[in-house]
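Below is just one:
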Amino acid sequence: MLRKTTLGFLLAALLAACGTARVVNRSQYGGTIALQGDRNKAMEQAHQEMSAHCGPGNYTIVREGEVVVGQDQVARSDTDYDKQGESTAASSSTRDAVEWRIEYQCGGAPAPGPAPTAAPAPGAPGPAPGEPPPPPPPGQPY
């Protein structure tokens, strides 16, 4: 029995030293990957997954961090034996279960947003009261 327990412990320790990347969801535009175990090893596998999906170097990680994926409940019971008999104290607690996830998009860097519009120069005349503002310069959104 000791041999099975030691083997099970050893196997669990080896798996914990490894890292894996699990695809959570994927679309034609990108996806989400959960990292488990050793973060560096898992990230290597995640880069392989993203390259296989989007093409080598054709993806951008847009978000990375812990995500709540459920709750864990831990129950504990302690029994004390003394001259007056036994007494038992029980407690339980609940915590958020989290995992590290990365979100990525295919196609390299995200597309830039609209260019900011320039404020009028100090002292420049604005539209007269009741008149609409002038149209934006060419290439600027309305």
